[in-house]
Amino acid sequence: MSIYDTIIANGTVVTPTLTAQMDLAIKDGKIAAIGKDLDSAENVIDATDCYVLPGGIDSHVHLAQPSGDGIVMADDFASGTLAALHGGNTMILSFCFQEKGGSLRQAVNDYHARANDSCYCDVSFHLVVTDPTAQVLGQELPSLVAAGYSSVKIFMTYEGLRLYDDEILSTLDAARSLNATVMVHCENEDAIRFLVEKHQAANKLAPKYHATTRPVAAEREATHRALALAEIVDVPIVIVHVSNEQAIEEISRARARGRNVVGETCPQYLFLTAEDLDGMDWEGAKFICSPPPRDKQAQEACWQALQDGTFDLFSSDHCPFRYDDPAGKLNPKGRTNFKWVPNGIPGVETRLPLLFSEGVMKGRISLEQFVGLTSTNHAKTYGLYPRKGVLQLGSDADIAIWDPRIETVITQQMLHHGADYTPFEGFKVQGWPTTMLLGGNTVIRERRQIEPKCLGNYIARNVG
Ligand code: DUC
Ligand code: ZN
Ligand code: ZN
């Protein structure tokens, strides 16, 4: 009779205290032992020459979001979570958008109905507050946070989503009293609208002008303001999708004043630039996301901030739309004017291989930093630790086995998302997560899905 269900043998296991060649044993979906020469199990997975890491947690993913104007998001929960799993993730956190004038609870119910029984990895939900009424902040938010929806995103841009400063303050204040985590999208909406109008008047309508209407200064100013408002309320905040050195400096300055700030960046700010938006035949629309990719200097600053710990989180901001599709980037209005191109790019399956290859394999970050930036820090920030994001006794057996020898050229054809392109087409990467375990079940083996069932669960969270 075996003691364990599964042993992953001889891999280099990364734990909070030690990275070494060891075995890891699983019993009843949890990590049951880590050490040398463990014995015995019904399933033994040989991980010689491979890294055994906590499954990735991507805490910034958009799935199944309804949009107006006939636009359809390219991933539902099934395709988005399957793509996540193939890319080394065992959990994603996606967003429930409150409709203006609508109920936050209703939004949560709607997203649960969309996700129900169709997730290939674990899922949890952030709340997006677009209408912070007394009812929403005083009644719905407290009961939702208590029920495990412990994080809120607010937008400073997009008419219809943005909050004004007084609304931001009252939302931050409510979050503070509940210990909920607040994520902020920092871009100055009024500055962007002013620039969009100027561009329209000058007939500057091509995708590349998306970047010039959302300049660094608009992001820097909003980042500064979000940090100041959080300081006034005395609440920690997460600055999401930071794209450049000036916004990074704002975070560093706030930290120097003793503020509790979490910084997040994404692959588009390390691997793309605004020049990608200047493609032939409107191809630049494939790269339209907000904030936009910047320049080489901004890329270097983002790498530096990943290395020196200014960034805690590396997320995908997967927000997929098909390109060649009337319901996607090339919708009838979008093919004539950048301002109608839906914002967002796919990336949930490529986030980890890109950072592993360019970060770990090229010596820019350590394996331990990789684990922190892609899994542990997400679990800590969003109330999942130590159940998730770490290989230690008692934690969920959510595990990615990485083979650093595998070379892959990223192509649309190999990916599992619902988009019809990848912005990272042709990128060469070294290393891939070849075997994935979710709650102790081997769901991907040698890059092939061997478990057809949707084994992902909805996970309620503590406060971060
Ligand atoms: N903000 C996001 O966080 N994701 C996609 C689009 C956007 O503006
Ligand atoms: Zn955002
Ligand atoms: Zn996003």
CATH architecture of the largest domain: Alpha-Beta Barrel
Count of individual beta strands = 17
Number of helices: 12
Series of secondary-structure elements, N-terminal to C-terminal? EEEEEEHEHEHEHEHHHEHEHHEHHEEEE
Percentage of β-strand residues? 15-25%
Ends distance: 40 Å
Count of folded domains: 2
CATH class of the largest domain: Alpha Beta
Helix fraction by DSSP (H/I, runs of at least 4): 25-40%
Which class of secondary structure composition applies to the elements? alpha/beta
Low-confidence stretches at least 5 residues in length (pLDDT < 50)? none
Radius of gyration: 21 Å
User: What characterizes the major β-sheet?
Assistant: 9 strands, mixed
Tell the overall outline.
Answer: globular
How would you explain this protein's 3D organization?
With 464 residues, this protein is α/β, with parallel strands linked by helices. The protein folds into two domains: 4-53 and 387-449, Urease, subunit C, domain 1 (Roll), CATH 2.30.40; 55-369, Metal-dependent hydrolases (TIM Barrel, Alpha-Beta Barrel), CATH 3.20.20. The protein has twelve helices and 17 strands. The chain has helices at 77-86, 104-115, 134-146, 165-178, 189-201, 208-212, 216-233, 245-256, 268-271, 296-308, 351-361, 367-381; strands at residues 4-14, 19-27, 30-35, 41-46, 51-54, 56-61, 89-97, 122-128, 151-155, 181-185, 237-239, 261-265, 313-314, 399-409, 428-438, 441-445, 448-449. The strands form two sheets. Strands 1, 2, 3, 4, 5, 14, 15, 16 and 17 form a nine-stranded mixed beta sheet that branches. Helix 2 (104-115) links the parallel strand 7 and strand 8 (122-128). The longest helix has 18 residues, at 216-233. It starts with a strand and ends in a 15-residue tail after the last strand. The mean pLDDT is 98. Residues 185, 240-241 line the site of one zinc ion. One zinc ion (ZN) binds at residues 60, 62, 317, 319.
